[in-house]
Amino acid sequence: MSSSSADGSYELYNYNPSVAAAAIFVLLFIAVTACHVYQLARAHAWYFTCFILGGLFEVIGYIARAGAHNNTSNLSIFTIQTLFILLAPPLYAATLYMTLGRLIFYLDKEELSSVPTRWLTVIFVAGDIISFLIQGAGGAILTHTTTDPSALTTGQNVIIAGLVIQLIFFTVFVLVATAFHYRIHRIPSSKSISSCIATDGWFHATWETTLLALYFASAMILVRSVYRLVEYASAGTTGSDGYLGRHELFAYVFDALPMLLGMVVMAVWHPSRVLLLNRKEGNDVQMSKIYLG
Question: TM segments (predicted)?
Answer without folding.
Answer: 20-38, 45-64, 84-107, 119-138, 158-182, 212-230, 250-269
